[in-house]
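Throughout our pipeline, every protein is held as a single compact record rather than as scattered files. Such a record has a labelled line for the sequence and another for the backbone structure tokens. The remainder of this section carries one protein's record, kept here as part of the documentation:
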Amino acid sequence: MKRNSIITTVVAGMIAATGQTALAQSFDGKTIEYTIPFSESGGSAQWANFYAPRLSAALPGSPTMVVRYRPGAGSTEGANWFQGQQDQGDGLTIFGDSGSTKFPYLLGDPRVRYEYAEWQPVLASATGGVVYLPPDLGAKFDGDMDDLKEEFYLYGSQGATTLDLVPLLAFKMLGLQVDPVFGVKGRGDGRLMFERGEANIDYQTSSAYIANVLPLVESGQAVPIFSWGSLDDNGVIVRDPTFPDLPTFKEVCEATDGCETEGVAWDAYKAFFVAGFANQKTIFLPSSASAETVATYTDALRSIVTAEGFKDDAAEVLGVYPQMTGAAAVEATKQATSITPEAKQYVLDWLKADYDITME
């Protein structure tokens, strides 16, 4: 009750400051559906289930929060569904995307029937990811990929225009011979392929890596080789604060013959790295949600991410990454859903040449 009273007071003050007199709404007795466009075994599920109970407790009235899964077509099916819910402005329908949702949008995928500009972001979560190998191949890694270029790799992929675009482009830049097995419904399914010996290279976002891959590392079934890294305040890729002992892809690229960290390929890689990781996951309200509803969610989420102990709890599940609310979430989403024409064309040409994929 005390937390809810504080939230109500703060939101009421924000509303009054904008000339409105309504009080923050209460969700007492309500059920909120939090839809994730992926299966329940991947990093998005870990992220959603981390936030759902906290959001339930922080929103006025402590509503029931139910996480729903709508996997399919690299998450575009779920996003298209949410686009059709844009008249659900009562705050009982929210949506969580991922880089796999942003990428088809950036590339002009014809399956996309959603428009980010119409959605209202209330939380933007940065994340990271780790690439790992089975122990026999991991033993050959010494900071570069030169001794691993003669191997043939199988990789369980959701699709080349999903978040898997980042690893597939990175593998190409490193000169690896990787055959993606397209069609898995989530990165969790890709991990299961690795565990069954059906794939011999994989990556997981930080939350899924911490929960599901670290046990494999500890038991000697997997060897991490590099992370995607993180952005510092100047936009420079640095070591991931969650995995500071692992080199970044940039470091490995610089050490590997033929891999360049400048030029159009690198520019394209970095653009999608930013869209896929610097603001990888976002919670949205539909376009019809009122300013009051948006303010209520924003304050609830701000109270969550600034609460004592949150950073420690988040580090164990999500890793050590920014969790942005309010104007910061809006700006991060704008940056993550835009791309230069040159970077876009490079990726479109690569997708056509390597996978015969066109955005038609």
Summary: The first helix runs from residue 2 to 17. The chain has 14 helices and 13 strands. Residues 1-22 have pLDDT under 50 and may be disordered.
